[in-house]
Amino acid sequence: MLYWNIVRRWAALWPLVLLRHQLYQFGLGRLMGFNEALLRTHFATFFSLPREEWFGFLTNTLPLPRLMAVMLRLFALSPWELRRGLVLGAGVDQLPTFAQSSG
Q1: Per-residue pLDDT tens for 22-34?
Q2: CA distance 33 to 47
Q3: Which one of 10, 24, 39, 55 has the largest count of C-beta atoms within 10 Å of its C-beta?
Q4: What is the dihedral of CA 11, 12, 16, 18, to 10 degrees?
C-alpha cells in the first residue's frame, strides 16, 4: 500500500516520462563508472531476470511501477559489490581504466 502511495505522489510531482528518463539516466551514469568486471557482473545479473523483465526494460515498454519493481528485483539479486556501486558509485578499485594512446 505504501509503495502505491509513493508512486502516486511522485506522479503528481513529476511527469511520468521525465521520471522514467531520470531513472534510465541514473542507471546509465552508474554503469559508465564501472570497470569491466563490475559491468560483467551487472549484465550477468540483469540477464538472469525473467526474459519479459529484461526485454521490457531494454525496449522501454514496462509501465513505471513495473519498471521500478524490476529495478528493485535486480538490486536484490545483485552481489554486494554491485549494490554498492549502484548506490554509492564504483569504489576506487572498481573504476574503469583507460589505456593512453601513444600517438
Answers
A1: 888 888 888 888 8
A2: 20
A3: 39
A4: -120
pLDDT of the residue at 26: 85
Task: Give the integer Cα–Cα distance in Å for 89 and 31.
Answer: 9
- The C-alpha atoms of residue 9 and residue 3 are separated, in whole angstroms, by 10
Is 97 a domain residue? no
Of the candidates 40, 38, 67, which has an alpha carbon nearest to the alpha carbon of residue 55?
A: 67
Q: List the grid coordinates of 97.
A: 581504466
* Grid cell at residue 62: 514496462
| Domain count of the fold of the chain | 1
In the chain, the amino acid numbered 4 is W
Can you give the pTM of this predicted structure? 0.70
Q: How far apart are CA 90 and CA 20, in angstroms?
A: 23
73 alpha carbon, distance to own chain's centre? 10
Domain for residue 102, yes or no?
no
